[in-house]
Amino acid sequence: MTAEPLERSLDHRDQLTQLTPHPDEPLVLRTARESDLPELRRLDEEVFQEVAYPGFLLRQLFDMYEQNFLVLDDGTGRLRGYVLAATRALGADSWILGLCVTQDRRRHGLGRELMTEVLDRLRRDGIRVVRLTVEPANLAAIFLYRDLGFRPEEPDGGLRPDYFGPGMHRQIMRLDLDH
Ligand SMILES: CC(C)(COP(=O)(O)OP(=O)(O)OC[C@H]1O[C@@H](n2cnc3c(N)ncnc32)[C@H](O)[C@@H]1OP(=O)(O)O)[C@@H](O)C(=O)NCCC(=O)NCCS
């Protein structure tokens, strides 16, 4: 359930379906557009700071995975969150490559909304396994992922020391999608 005003765009033509009417600042969950890229970069840097994606990589991720790149648009030119899932050309698995909600909007169900929508899209596309990496101390994200059914991928409880380089440990989590 969402405690915030939220609109969704569920189809590829970006027609908006209002879920919760709100006069002030309704958020729209929609597919990212090319014109979002500067704001996406700003948002990514605001949230992830030194581990934000370089601009050129964000651009290429958009080019590759546009349909599974979803944003929360507040209607004022600002994005308040995004999720990005990458799929393989061959195979039925996917990786979540990014998820965030701006600090001022957390704990209102938006992270869950982003994940639920992208998982629905992946399921519709025939994806069977979704993986992600999470910093082992990031309990907010781990609780969210566990709630959605993700579990550590063995061995070692999913822990992968130095996964992103020295000292950058990660846990790998996995979800098998029902079909
Ligand atoms: C992780 C993140 C996306 C969660 O977004 P959010 O909109 O605040 O999450 P939601 O409100 O949808 O919370 C869903 C569930 O996640 C868990 N959760 C989220 N934040 C939590 C927190 N601070 N403490 C404990 N549990 C938390 C809870 O189980 C919650 O369910 P509940 O509200 O019914 O208790 C957000 O905290 C964020 O952007 N963090 C910084 C970026 C990041 O770490 N991204 C993930 C990288 S792997």
TrEMBL record:
The lineage of its organism: Bacteria, Bacillati, Actinomycetota, Actinomycetes, Kitasatosporales. Keywords: Acyltransferase, Transferase. Residues 1-15 have a biased composition (Basic and acidic residues). Residues 1-24 are annotated as: Disordered. It comes from the Bacteria. Residues 27-178 form the N-acetyltransferase domain. This is Acetyltransferase. PANTHER family: ACETYLTRANSFERASE, N-ACETYLTRANSFERASE DOMAIN-CONTAINING PROTEIN. One of its GO terms (molecular function) is acyltransferase activity, transferring groups other than amino-acyl groups. The keyword Transmembrane does not apply. It holds the Pfam family Acetyltransf_1. It comes from Streptomyces mutabilis.
